[in-house]
Design goal:
Length: about 425
């Protein structure tokens, strides 16, 4: 397995290098994440298929959340890479419908959906620990001695089940839901941490609500994590297992094909060239590296396979043009909405009414079990009841881009 993981990481770093992208400001770090498919029982190099990769470490403050779905709320690498994987699955379904034979997905024998081909597993790579509950003790260990000593003396009372903690505060609250960003001096957001989102994917899959009507739940089989010193790996493994398994409990009430699937945890010693540690090692006399404001998004087998984002929109696009389909990010809600409808059309499936909003279409998925599975984790009285939801106010746009103010307090100004 170690050699397989090393092969995967080398392949991801090679694909990143081929994009020729680097943060535009010197001495700025970023995080790299990717999703890849592996075909078991194969020693060939082609057994790995990287389907998406992304960089990023920023998210928008709540006051800048777009109401038309034309920008990304959360541009952390893990989130963008997951959205890129969803886009790839849509396009692979379209290719299958056009007669292409896929190695990676197949039609389900008993349902009108696709699924991973037996023997295929989904891997996730991230160049450093995901923010949130999976990295709390790691961050505490890597603080300067004065900060670490002061933090070790502080304890906090348990959060009520309907609450989430903020960023890096309250390290002693292990298992707590947390919001981004981690820095206390940054504007607040409603974006949950990557560790929390990955815990959700352990229950509902990575495919999301819309794609769940076409694709069986796709679960992460293993997560490969970089930038963790060998002497801290046992502690980090314990935190990851708590974040993605132990704090979820049994998640009662899940209906087939949904279940709790905890990913394996693997580590890689190979550094990412634009990680914080790599940059600071290269330039030890510089001030500490700062996080890049940009993100790279790359999707396999796609025309115009990569693009660069800044502030949740495509770099260089004017405010006047940002909502035009040709200028929107490939991975924003409006673009994935359009890709979903295009896939339905390719399959000759019924299309929703033109005035149905993105929010309402997502929640129709309740009938196929996705929203029921999400509710089993985030509903009232459930372990993630404190999950902060943006929801309808930022998802009340339809396929034409028309906003529905009566359903959208953010549009109404209320």
């Amino acid at each position: 397995m170690d050699s397989d993981v090393a092969t995967l990481v080398d392949h991801i770093h090679h694909l990143y290098a081929k994009t020729k992208y680097k943060p535009s400001t010197p001495h700025q770090f970023t995080i790299l994440a990717a999703f890849a498919l592996n075909l078991a029982d194969s020693s060939e190099s082609s057994s790995w298929k990287v389907i998406s990769l992304a960089t990023g470490a920023k998210c928008l403050p709540t006051l800048r959340f777009p109401v038309a779905g034309d920008a990304l709320h959360d541009s952390h690498a893990e989130v963008l890479a997951r959205r890129g994987a969803v886009s790839w699955f849509y396009r692979e379904i379209q290719r299958c419908a056009a007669g292409h034979k896929s190695t990676w997905i197949e039609t389900h024998p008993n349902r009108p959906t696709w699924r991973l081909t037996p023997g295929v597993a989904l891997y996730m790579y991230v160049s450093t620990l995901p923010c949130g509950d999976a990295s709390t003790r790691f961050l505490a260990h890597t603080q300067d001695p004065t900060t670490a000593a002061s933090m070790s003396l502080v304890t906090f009372s348990p959060l009520p089940p309907t609450s989430a903690s903020r960023g890096r505060t309250d390290f002693s609250r292990l298992g707590a839901l947390r919001t981004k960003p981690s820095r206390a001096d940054a504007p607040p957001t409603m974006c949950m941490t990557c560790a929390d989102k990955m815990a959700l994917w352990s229950v509902v899959g990575v495919q999301g609500a819309l794609a769940s009507v076409l694709l069986e739940p796709v679960y992460i089989y293993a997560v490969v994590i970089g930038d963790v010193q060998e002497e801290l790996r046992d502690v980090v493994r314990g935190d990851c297992e708590r974040a993605w398994r132990d704090r979820l409990g049994t998640v009662d009430g899940l209906q087939e094909p949904y279940s709790l699937r905890t990913p394996e945890i693997h580590f890689t010693p190979k550094p990412f060239v634009y990680s914080r540690n790599s940059l600071e090692a290269q330039s030890p006399h510089f001030p500490p590296a700062s996080a890049s404001n940009e993100s790279l998004c790359w999707i396999a087998d796609t025309p115009n396979s990569h693009e660069v984002l800044a502030g949740g929109i495509r770099r260089g696009v004017s405010a006047k043009n940002r909502s035009r389909p040709a200028h929107r990010p490939q991975l924003c809600k409006a673009s994935l909405f359009a890709l979903h409808l295009d896939t339905l059309s390719t399959l000759d499936r019924p299309l929703p009414p033109e005035d149905m909003t993105y929010f309402d279409l997502k929640h129709i998925a309740f009938t196929n079990g996705y929203q029921h599975a999400k509710d089993a984790l985030r509903g009232k009285g459930r372990v993630f009841e404190g999950w902060i939801v943006s929801g309808r106010p930022w998802e009340s746009f339809d396929m034409r881009g028309v906003l529905h103010p009566s359903e959208n307090p953010a549009v109404d100004g209320n």
